[in-house]
Specification:
single chain; 68 residues; mainly alpha; 0% strand; elongated
């Protein structure tokens, strides 16, 4: 499927926002009195950050390829 540059830029913006929010969740859960209690939530949030970061990198690569 072909995406416009505007589509890619908006997706990158949304991903950055989501990563920021997920990082806030991680910080909040880690600062709780018993962070081990939230182990599964922390694992999920960290994995999502990694996945969204990968997606953002791929979008950036696509945008860079269009600039050449």
């Amino acid at each position: 499927m072909d995406y416009t540059e505007a589509d890619l830029r908006e997706a990158r913006r949304q991903i950055a926002s989501t990563v920021h929010k997920l990082n806030e969740v991680v910080r909040t859960l880690e600062s709780k009195p018993d962070p081990g209690r939230y182990r599964s939530q922390l694992t999920l949030a960290r994995r999502r950050v990694a996945a969204f970061t990968l997606a953002a990198d791929l979008i950036e690569r696509e945008l860079d390829g269009r600039r050449e």
